[in-house]
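User: Can you write out an input/output pair for a complex, sequences first and structure second?

Assistant: Here is one pair. Inputs:
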Amino acid sequence: MNIDMIRAAAKRLEGHARRTPLLSSPFLDEIAGRKLLVKAECLQHTGSFKFRGGWSAVSNLSDNELKTGVIAFSSGNHAQGVALAAREHGAPAVIVMPSNAPEVKIENTRALGAEVVLYDRENESREEIGEALSRKRGLTLIRPFDEPQVIAGQGTCGLEIVADAGVTEADVLVCCGGGGLTGGIALALAAEAPGMTVRPCEPEGFDDVTRSLLSGQREKNDSESGSICDAILTPSPGEITFPILKEHCGPGIVVTEDECLRAMGLAFERLRIVVEPGGAAALAGALFHGNELGHDTVIAVATGGNVDKEVFQRALETLA
Amino acid sequence: MNIDMIRAAAKRLEGHARRTPLLSSPFLDEIAGRKLLVKAECLQHTGSFKFRGGWSAVSNLSDNELKTGVIAFSSGNHAQGVALAAREHGAPAVIVMPSNAPEVKIENTRALGAEVVLYDRENESREEIGEALSRKRGLTLIRPFDEPQVIAGQGTCGLEIVADAGVTEADVLVCCGGGGLTGGIALALAAEAPGMTVRPCEPEGFDDVTRSLLSGQREKNDSESGSICDAILTPSPGEITFPILKEHCGPGIVVTEDECLRAMGLAFERLRIVVEPGGAAALAGALFHGNELGHDTVIAVATGGNVDKEVFQRALETLA
């Protein structure tokens, strides 16, 4: 993994991925106690940054690989990102999803032309199911984070942050599951804006990356479900991503579910964007964990916006 | 009014107004029956396109005029646009607002440093109150739409549509109150993309522009309140704006409140943006009035996103 792979991915993504805006509000600056910029990846195609990695990986395949098709396992956002990228390349896509993923994500993945295979998150291994199907049907497996071309695609988000932020020093808060986006952005910033520090943000009870950064080795979560932050519930940092995180990231920030819901409410009210709970962890860190930050500017990546209306209503209820 | 004024306004706005993205979703294309692009002006500073006109007008004032200050009358979005533009120019701002405007808009205007004067929408004339205060305190009145520099500022939204749309022929649907944005965009398109036709969109019962375009003269609405589309409830098209609309626009499109709520729900689900009822009229036209359109591409301007959570919850309830 290196910066050249990210720059090459940026070229492949040009004209296909959306260059998402950096939003701000004087009202949010006041709550954060500093300048706050929000990278609105919820406005990316399929509603999350995952389209970047999906496009990066699919666009790197040979014609034969495209013809046979791809397979991905995902809690939802990676699924949609890969499904749309595959469809736009004319490649078949099989997606292995947990049966308890938000219904809107399952439906959307099917509507994007993918074949969806459901599994039980508590008792089955998506890795095993994905790899078995991949072998049986000759499909190219596109891993959600431990995959160099996926990390390279996610890193393009970091290049855009550097180009658009207007500052050279900042805490850059990233909602962190397996570390693909966090690692990709960390590599981009290390090469182009070394005064910016990436800070992984995780929900309480699922803080494997934060604990791993403290202990220096890959720690595991006790569970893989049981949080509204479904998009970022991965068991532990990746084999490829963890060394990147360890080398380049500052300490993790652990936020509560309630802070995520309040951040979603404020994003609705002040930025007029829709953010899902797992996609709001970084914004929650920026708004409510200022004492853990080291710079006058904080940049939070709002990683996704695929949320059921019932959960969004809970976020609205946090508003005065 | 001419295209040069719009181009000059675009220069003054550069680096101050946000260049809002054109969003899309394959799911919305399917409902619309054609390619649908959404200009997300709800992501503009202060949550609506009105910041463009406010900045354009305020940035055109002399140092003396800035020092004395400005006054505006507005149902809310123009108020916030002028308030922020004034604050960023170091100019005092007085805003005359209807007492039944959404509370969030009144609060936001105050929080942006403006002095708010409330009036009764049914029994008092905001024009008279605004003009009296303007005379008494020497404030420069910035009218919400019948003001050349405001129209020029709103027209910059049209220049961006032309630059970013990737097509030369389209119906361009614009939520229409007094016609400042609609007229500004119409002038921009007439000069730069004559194959695009502006179509004003209005809520049922407040279709003064649609009726005026049919009769050829400025028609009035029976009431100035009583719709959730508060942002676009103006009594009649403007003296300056109507001749522009008459020369350049296609027929108006009249949408129901229910269609606006459904469009808000779909914008939440498919574009992950927050749109207010009046700001959703154009999207409602694009999604549900396809038989009134003439091109393979429809562009809808989502003009604003300042909405109370109670009204937004009604929009969420329209989703399956």
